[in-house]
Design goal:
mainly beta; disordered N terminus; six-stranded antiparallel beta sheet; 2 domains; Trypsin Inhibitor V, Chain A; 12 strands; elongated; 209 residues; Immunoglobulin-like
Length: 209
Amino acid sequence: MNKLYLMISIIYFIGLNDGAKLPKSEKQLILTGRVTFPGGSSVPIEPDGKLTVELQDTSLADAPAKVIARGTSKVTRFPVVFGLKYSPSQILDGHTYSLDASIKNKKNELLYTNDIYIRVTPLSVNRKKLIEVPVKLIKKTTPASKKHHWPELVGKNGQEAVRIIKKETGFTNVMTVKEGSPVTMEYNPNRVRVTVNKQGIVTIVPTVA
């Protein structure tokens, strides 16, 4: 990720901050971070995905977390850089704070969320560093490409088939697999395996799997 993209991402997300109203006379602080998912930028997010990141006061174990700052943004791929704006007066001595991230689709179904506690110190100098917020998949997403099968590639060169599929889908997780090779069985909506014979020719219809 280049510096220009990083800067644009942070500024855009700060502009959408919709947490508690900030005192106009007080200098505002910014907490920056990055929402990540195993597989990195090779994993597209379901179309119309919406990311919400909150800075929360989680001091009371038997009460709902208090939202200090909230940011929302449409997202298409991981990682997603964010910035949350808040005032020092919102941070109280002796209280604990954490980050919460979730991604939902247009049906408001939860797609991704962080399942580990991300504790932060909002007044620390470390707030200027990118805080990693890993999320896990809750609901299998629909690939960015509506195309799932490529029967027209049977009989073609495997590497050429890989190039075509990558171009049509934007996926990076596209690879050739020799006939009879062992493969993992879990479903991945952002992966295509291209089965080839000893001559490198596609023998089975490539499918998202």
